[in-house]
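pasting for ref
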Amino acid sequence: MLLVQRISSSASSSHSEERGLAWLLARVALLALSFVVAAAPLALAQGAKRSAAQKPAARAATENVDPYTRGKREALDKAGYVAIGEFPLTQGLHTRDVEEALGNVPMRWVETEHFRIGSTLTTYGFQSDPQEERRLKDDLAQLKSRFERFSPPERKLDPWLRVHLAAWRVERLYADLLKRFGLVDEEFDPERTPERPPGIGTGRYLGMEHKFVVLLFEQDASLGRFCRRIGWAELQIYGRWRLPGGAMGIALSAEGVRGMNFDLDAALTSFLLGETAVMLLEGLNENLAAVPIWFRYGVSHAYAREFDPRWTLTATGTTREFGDDSWKWEPRVGRLVANDAACAWKAMSAWISTDQIRPQEHLVMWSRTSWLLKRKPSELRTFLLGVAQPLPGVPEAQRIELIDARTRESCSKAFGRTLEELDAEWRAWVAKTYPK
């Protein structure tokens, strides 16, 4: 039997529904889940009756040939892929299990160096958004060098191209996160580094045993069916979880994002990158909720906004109407600081749930985190490895105290500053740098 750990949005662990649920309540009146780690039995047992229930037509559709690699080993190597098609996702869970959970809906699967990615996304037609089209033009130009055969349709992203873009983008984020924090991939490889450096976990993938799982669903129904099959409450828009055997995973619904009136692929991609950043930070050394919440989501917002600053969907309460300028956060933060309305850094250190974060505080923690990310990688490494260590099973009040104490100690070791001193320096930087 496969057990899934779920972490959501109240105050005891750290996983799947953390941000989306407060967001769902505010925007689409969906069900909020508690932030308690729960073990839920997965109904996808190994050796389930796959072949009898499987329709040949559905299997044939699943095994359709990727037009960009044709499944050839040379082409896969050039694209940076370990595999394409069917493969195990983690202990007790296979790509076939996911497809069966959806009613044998065909999926496209790609395994990269650090991720296992599945998608039911359909063809996306360009929406005549100049900013999105400029970004897509640049990304496709970079992606082209990875494929011998690269003839995408005019002003469209076909289903396989969307998978290839997602795989390239999350791997690029993975490499960028390691570089920013002074980490080296080889440090996590037991064959290349038998003796682990201090603070580095035992697993190959940021201290976890299995690769990170990313599921991109076209429809909310697919996400809901998958959740029901593994014993979760039905979700819409997204979920994030820890799978057994040492793996982290996220699932996003394009329909759910469109339901928020965000039709652009850029919005879905910003969401994907922000969620991936949180997943990686929670997966580091399997710490789950130990990295302070203001830093996890500050980094998430930073990656989402670096891709396209108009879409920060995980910043609960800050979602915008298309065409307005509320996405320009710098002047808003500048006014908060000028009016002494920005929450104190020490107050953020006590947060353990996204329910505690008001909309304007998402802006503040994004700004503070972005400011910290300008520091030397060696300093950021010291800070991150200091806080990214699993927490003992203690009551919530002690967890809050422990996270706060670790944060303060790590700030002192990494930056040579107290939280109060960092706060004063950040406020001075904002006053000097941001427009009012």
